[in-house]
Each structure stands twice: as structure tokens, then as C-alpha cells.
Amino acid sequence: MRPLIGITCNYDYRDTVGTASSMGTVGQDWNFLAQDYVNAIEKASGTPLLIPMYRNFEDVKPLLDKLDGILISGGHDVGPENYNQRAKHCGTVMPMRDAQDLAISRYVAHHTEKSLLGICRGIQILNVAFGGTLYQDVESDGGFEHHFGDIYPRNYPWHFVQLKSGSVLETVFEKEQICVNSYHHQAVCTPGKNVIITATSTEGVPEGIELAEKKFVVGVQWHPEMMFDSEEQLKLFSAFIDSCR
Prior knowledge:
The chain has 245 residues and is of the alpha/beta class. The chain has seven helices and 13 strands. Helix 4 links the parallel strand 5 (69-72) and strand 6 (115-119).
């Protein structure tokens, strides 16, 4: 039987999503997700199920208990109040989604043996959930190079990532360096409790993390779901799905 994989949705309380797509009317909240996430999970032999915003996290728990694994998807910036900082270089923040994604990450990691995969915002959520901090902007806060590769097609690999020897990521890709895409301006800064940085860009931006002593709690800063047509990047989703069986 194909593992059932929950994917967290983007959430927006503003009218832009509905009005720009000529759906609905003003005053509606929206749950939405790029199809790439669904395609990647389906191609790796999982069954994707979207997790919308709930008003009460207690109502989410029964769903989480039925899932075989959870994918924390990308999206808006993580609010820095969640790691005891004030906003300086943030884009749009959705506090309601932050609260639910953080609660999902902590509940799954601390109360179950289920696998977790975080992508882009998802790696940041995982790190903050366990007490870590973020660069609010990798250029302004960290002095790093620009990491938002919107001049390229979404599935085009354009920068290198070094994988830590012996890590889950190095085992998955069977090499110590891969080439990836990139669409982010925030990144992991100080790792949280039991969080190990297992991948970095050429200039040192954290690109992958793993939670110690867990079978598969992994976050990546690039967007492998946008590269689901890549046999190499599909290895990550296949390993995730296999860990959920």
C-alpha cells in the first residue's frame, strides 16, 4: 500500500489569491499549494494529502496520527518572533501558518516515529521548532550571495551544495556534492537542539539539516519538488517515502 503523506498548505488571509485568479469574492481566506509537491510525492509512490489550516491544533492531531509521513512545504517567511527576534528584513509573514507548522513539527518529532521532510520554508520551520534561529535575509544578515534564482527555469540546477559524509542526505544521493536550484532569502542560522547541519552551499549557507537520533527528520533549503523530473532529486522523495513504509 502506498504511504499516506500529508503536505502542509500555504495560507493567506488576503484577497489577492482569489481576485487574481478570478475565484470567490473578497474577504475569504485561502489554502493553496504548488502542484509540484503533489507530483513529486506521487511519482515517488506516495499518496499525497493536503493539510489545510485548522482553527484548533487539537483537531489536527487525529489526522497526523493517521498519516505515514509529513512534508512541510515552502511559502511565506517565518516570523522572527518565533525565535525571539524582531522583524528587520522579512517579507510577508503568516503567523497562523507559522503556529500550525511549528506545532505539527514538534508533535510529529516528539510524540511519533513518523518521518518529516521540510522544504525551503520547511527547513526553517524545523529548525525554529527545535529552538534554532534564522537569517532573516541571507544577504543583509549573513553577508552571503543572492540565493533567489528566479532568472532560471524552476527546475534548473545552478549552484552546488556540499553534503556531510555519513549524513542521511549523503546516503540518499550517494555523493558528497550535488547541484540544486534555489528560491529563498532566509536560511538556518543557529541550529536548534539536536539539529545537525548536513549540507551547505559553496559559501557556507546551511542547505540541509537532520534531527539527531531520528530515522528521517530532514530539511532541505532548495526545491527538489520543482525538480521532480530529475532522477537525482527524486531520490530524496523516494528515500522519504521508503522511510514512511
